[in-house]
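Let us work through a complete example step by step.
Step 1: write down the sequence.
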Amino acid sequence: MKKVLILGGGIGGVASAIAFRKQGFEVELVSERDYLFIYPLAIWIPVGSMQFKDVSMPLSKLARKHGFSLTIDKVVALDSDDKTITLEKAGVRDSPALVVVALGASKMKHEGIEHTSSICGKPEESLVLKEKIEALVARGSGKIALGFGGNPKDASAVRGGPGFELLFNLHHHLKKLGIRKKFELTFFAPMAEPGARMGKKALAAMATMFHTKSITTRFGKKISHFEADGVVFEDQSMLQSDLTMFIPAGEGQEIIRKSNLPQNSAGFICIDDYCRIEGVKGWYAVGDAAALEGPEWKAKQGHIAELMANNAAGNAAIEHLGRQGAMKGYQAHLNVLCVMDMGDGAGFVYKNSVREVFIPLPVVGHWLKKSWGHYYKLSKLWL
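Step 2: predict the structure and record it as tokens.
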């Protein structure tokens, strides 16, 4: 049985471990954390709608269910020439014939970033946000700024959806408490039309929601730096804030940027349509670690990471196990897909190369998103 080493225990790494096992490979998953954190559900932690334990799954449980081995260790170096992987505790290891890099992305470093909290950073930051929101609620009033940044070297690395969702959930949370009018909510982003990749219909719907929910916006100004009491833009104007939630755009992990793996200018791993790392036989990259090729509106999302994981496993079975069938590429299946939760409803967003859809889902949409969370966890344990 051929062995594959999966590097990374996030959505893409877990999907890869499951998919390669189903194809008949022996699988070892290496993860820095001992749990899978389900980032699409983390929007509810800061407003108290979900607890941390509801948004995570023990990797040991998934390993037992699907029959892969689990190593809790941190990847600190990769060498595609010598075919070695260096782990923090275990040291240098020769890689097996097949390796899948699913290490995700790191976040761009902004001056003063320590004055912000992120819903897409380390999992523990969701709890920090919860504490800060609770402190402001106890105070009874405040100014809260929420936003995200861009990466001019790779626009697909922008993670804006969770920022919109937390914003609308926070509005709903404060409204339920009867104190919404005591708070100023502002959404900011350096691009002129944040969320434009979702399509014109979704963009128009969000503009209407900003207006009807009394949320101010600050768009089209580059961020200079953050301070303890707000956001400073390149023209030296300042957005005052008692709490700043900011999602930096992604960039390649430092260990990838320092490696000899082929990379684009943002430090993401260059792959072909079949998720094979260019020039490195038997090595694949999926999810946020990979440089996506495709239309201008392409975006790194969890369902795309899972698609890439399944394609990589199937393609590897054809190439390395002699299975019959046609290789599958990811580029033809790129799309933007999300149920944008608002606490009291949601909006269904879909966009591909030929159409775009936005469907308002009052009330039921919120429960559809929560149901997806239950489905995701159950599917990993029973399917």
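Step 3: interpret the result. The helical segments are 11-22, 59-66, 125-139, 161-176, 200-212, 254-257, 302-320, 364-382.
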